[in-house]
Structures are given as structure tokens and as C-alpha cells.
Amino acid sequence: MKLLFDKGTLILDEVPASLSIPPEFIFDNRVDKYRTPGYRYRWVVEYFKKNRISFEDRVPAYQKLQLTSRLQFDPHPFQREAIEAWQANKFLGIIELPTGAGKSYVAQMAIELTQRSTLVVVPTLDLMNQWYDLLSATFGGNQVGLLGGGYYELNSLTVTTYDSATNHMERIGHRWGLIIFDECHHLPGPMYAHAAEMCIAPYRLALTATLERADGRHVLLEDLVGPVVYRKGIKDLAGEYLSDYEVRKIRVRLSSEEQVEYNTARQEIDSFIREHSLSLSSIEGWKQFIIHSSRTPEGRRAMLAYQTSRKISMGTSSKLRALESLLKQHARDRVIIFTADNETVYTISQTFLIPAITHQTDTKERKAILEAFNRGDYSVLVTSKVLNEGVNVPEANVAIILSGSGSVREHVQRLGRILRRREGKHAILYEVVTKGTVEEHISQRRSKHDAYQ
After folding, report:
1. 171 vs 126, which has greater pLDDT?
2. Is 408 in the same domain as 438?
3. In a domain? residue 65
4. b (16+ CB within 10 A) / e for 367-394
5. pLDDT digits (tens, 9 = 90+) for 328-360
6. SS3 of 13, please?
7. Residue 194, C-beta contacts closer than 8 angstroms, at least 6 positions apart
């Protein structure tokens, strides 16, 4: 009997009539063979060996490596504990550590420990390039390849994006003995999960600072990569391994004109919600609001009123005055300003002559701005959501949240941007909230994390 890799799946070929088919396999009428997803490879091999079933394994195309790190650092105790916990779980599982705690170094330890062809999967091209530089410096550029952003260079160690991994895994899923999912909260998405399912890698490591998803799909990760084997929070590491920090909330008020316009918009929304017995306190309630608002002119007016109320509460002129005061107070610090939308980013950029980064900023300009910020040529930059994750700004010590979503993950990620430790650094996160508006509820929702308690 032969075990084969076929388009992200495993196939049993030349099966003896007497064989009891493993429960993971189902019969595929198209090819008259038994088939199971590629990520079941480890389980299948262990099943055959345990039951002393003879088979010819033609699946793996990965290599045993002989890598030695060029960068010799003593890991922090928590990093050593994390990799030992992963090893104790048979090289499977999730490690949850805060931003700035050195998750990438834990991944390097895993690569050196397993010595297998490795695929690192990341959410953005910027992170892909960062990982490429990191692995090249650690193990040598001749060992590292790229898949994505116009590159198709498979090597012993290869870095790719979730998009590219999903697109190519059915052809390359048998080439990796170790797969590392960085920012693994992206993985359980309906499409990205296929990247894990089509890969045979018997060793799997997932890294994140914020595991839970609002849609609850993070529970799928245990099947795809293993359980959480190690977890440390921001408060566990602050002071010794991350910067000391404090969170300050600043409340501002709407102007009289803004208040009138806001109240009018809220009355329109509340009337529509009552009429249709809706609630906006949950994802399902929000979905129903979108569905109902698309069906009638009254619904469309309610949606427009919602957008108006949100724009007023998050973009009130009082926030710009508060921002001006904070920038004067922190003139000697390295400050990142976060907003919920690009329009506010560009308004702040033009008003205060501050460099801006949005999804519209091209790669070279973004790189130049971040390098200038880290050098100190720029002391302030403003952004919307694109710097929430996957960016290295170790010199930043002040974050100003002018607006954002109710996502706990986003709020924790923004705090994480200013927590990389350096001597004498004390980080401050300001949250500017409009009093008497729905933004107070949003602020309460996103602060439900022990880092803010």
C-alpha cells in the first residue's frame, strides 16, 4: 500500500482488500481511492505504525537540515519555557505572547530545534520582508526564500503570506516539516484555514499576541495547529521584559452644534432599531441591522444616521484640540497617533504637518517614514489601522488613540506598539473619548482585557 500526496490531500493507493481503512479517510468516487486532508499526515503515519500496518510513504518532500544560528542570544526564561512547552506537546501548539516579547525569537528556536524545511506564514508583505531579513541574518540568506509579492523562491526556509499560502499550498504542502503561523488569529478565516489543512507539516507552531476572535473561530486552531501550550500577558512581562506603561483616558465634549446634529442622528437610529426590535450589542444584531437597513428608504436613512453619529463622535473638533495639547506635552517623545479612518488621518496630517501612513501609502514611502521615525527625524506619525500589527517601532513610547473600533484585539495591538523595552523607557497610552456618545460604550468594550485593568 502507498500513501501519496495529491493536491493538498493524502491518498491511499493499492489498498489490500483486508485492510481496515483508518477513520480519517473517506472514499473519493472521482478517483476510486480513499482520501483525507493533508494536515492529517502525522496522525495517519502514527496510526499505521501503531497498528503495524505496512505502507510505502511517498508523501514528504521536506528535508532534514543542519542549521546553526549565527546570532547567539540567551533566551529569556519565558521564551525558554514557551519552547519547552511546545516541545513537550510533541511540537504542536499555540504560543501567546505580547507584542515586543520576542515571538520571532521563539520561532527561530523552533526552527533550530526541529531542523526541518520550514514555511513561515504571515499576514502582510511588510511582515514577510521583516521575517526574510530576520531569517537571513540568523541562518544565512542562501537558506531563505520568498513566496508572495511577485516572488516564487522556495528554499529550506521560506516566508509567505496567508494569501499566497492559500493559493499555492495544494502544490507545495508536502515540502514542509515545520509550518509557523505568525499572527495566527488570521488563520481560522474561512479561506486561510485551507492553508493549514492542505499542508502535511508534522510540526506546527502558531504565534499571536491576541488569540480570541470576535466570531469565535479561534476554537478551530486547536484542530489545525494544536492547543495553547504557553501564554503570558502584558502585565506578566511589563517592567522586566516589556516597558512599564500607563493608560490615561481623556474625555472631551461635543460642541453645541455637534451635539444637536448627533442627537438628531441618534434619534433616527433608535427609532429604526425599536421599530424592528434590533440590538447593536452583538455581531448578529449588527448583521440584522445591515440587512434591514438595506431594504427600505427608512433603513437607508438609519444607516446614514449611524455613519453620521459615528463620524461626529470620533471626529469632533474637541479631539483635535486635545491632540494639540498632548503633542505639546510630549514634544520630546516618539508619538504614534491612531484613528479609525483615513479621512481623519489626512486631516491631522495636514493640520499638524505630521507624516501619515495608510493603506494608500506605497511600500517605499512607508518604509522611509518608519525608518525616519525610528531614527528620530520624525517624532510623530499618524495612522489608521495599518500599523496595528506587523511593524517594528521600538522607539515609540506614546500612543494616542483618537478613535477606533470596539475590538479588544485592536486596542491591545495598539498598546503593543509602544511596549518594546529599552533602558529608561516609560510608555503612555492615551485614549481620547467623546463624553455622552456611543464612543463611551465602544471604549468600555475594547478595554475588556487585563492589560487595561
Report:
1. 171
2. yes
3. no
4. eebbeebeeeebbbbbbbbbbbbbbbbb
5. 999 999 999 999 989 999 999 999 999 999 988
6. strand
7. 8, 166, 169
